[in-house]
Amino acid sequence: MSTDVSVSKRRVPSLTYGYGTDRGLKRELNEDSLIASDPVFAVADGMGGHEAGEVASGICVRTLGDSPVVGTRCPQFSAADIHDLLQLADQRIREATGGRAGTTVSGVMLVEESESPYWLFFNVGDSRTYRLSQGVFEQVTVDHSEVQELVDIGRITEAEAQIHPRRHVVTRALGTGSETEPDFWLMPVEEGDRIMVCSDGLTGEVSAEHIRDLLSNIGDPQMTTDSLIDAALRSGARDNVSVIVIDASGIDRDPAITARTDDDSEDTIPRRPSTPKVSSADQPTESGTASNDAGDRR
Q1: What does pTM read for this prediction?
Q2: I want to staple 105 with a disulfide (CB 3.0 to 4.6 A). Which of 44, 187, 202, 277 is the partner?
């Protein structure tokens, strides 16, 4: 048994990360909250206004931060375990706000699967998580929004979705509405992986191409985070902006396990095309605003 543990520890990657949040140039409040504490990284974008949104997003990240795996390197933790945490957050938000406020949440946890490190991505709403791996930049999560549904059925293009009048309406959220189920994706960690988690205050202002360029060309994750937020501010920053950038290195896979898992980067759902460091309203923090449906986040 001790041999198994030592082999497992040998394969745990080293993570370096940066994070930041900004109220933006138009909002009175910052209703985004985030957690960046190995192995949990997530951004929550609160909805509701009048300080209710920051309550919802803050409860969400604090619930994630209360998990016993925080501070544990590459724990054995499943999608079902994260699902339970997010449903607990949903319950706590409803109890605190009476269903008048909600939040998106998007993020990733570094977990152990088949004695190897994996990224376990999760998402509710339209905050996003991206991956830059082996030179390939992709959006991992799929938005739960009215415009994404229109894109999926071919009614509008991705470019049209960026300016659509219903682009702020999310179809799933924690704490409000009837649709709260998270989506999950499980992917093996590769040497040099760079993960970015963000609220839509970034993606609503900065193009995917510009985001990819900054992620590709700036080495330090904190400097990359700061540059991404600065890019949103230069573009007008009509919403709160929150970003986490995580780098993985020191991957040391057993060749036999690598061969077995190379084809295992499948999603836990069907893919559609396409104390911890917690930032929240009652600590130095910030997210977007909205009213409801799951939510209109304008």
Answers
A1: 0.83
A2: 44
CA angle 50, 108, 248 (to 5 degrees): 130
Pair of tokens at residue 140? 């991992």
Q: How far apart are the first and last CA of the chain?
A: 54
Q: Give, as one character, the DSSP assignment of residue 34.
A: E
Contact 243, 229 (CB under 8 A): yes
Burial 76-113 (b: 16+ CB within 10 A, else e): ebebebbeebbebbbebbbeebeebbbbbbbbbbbbbb
> Whose CA is closest to 124, among 52, 166, 174?
174
Query: How large is the C-alpha radius of gyration of the chain?
Result: 18
CA distance 202 to 200: 5
- Number of residues in the chain: 298
Task: Decide: residue 72, CB within 10 A, 0-12 exposed, 13-18 middle, 19+ buried.
Answer: middle
pLDDT digits (tens, 9 = 90+) for 55-90: 999 999 999 999 999 999 999 999 999 999 999 999
| Residue 155: both structure tokens together | 């009614």
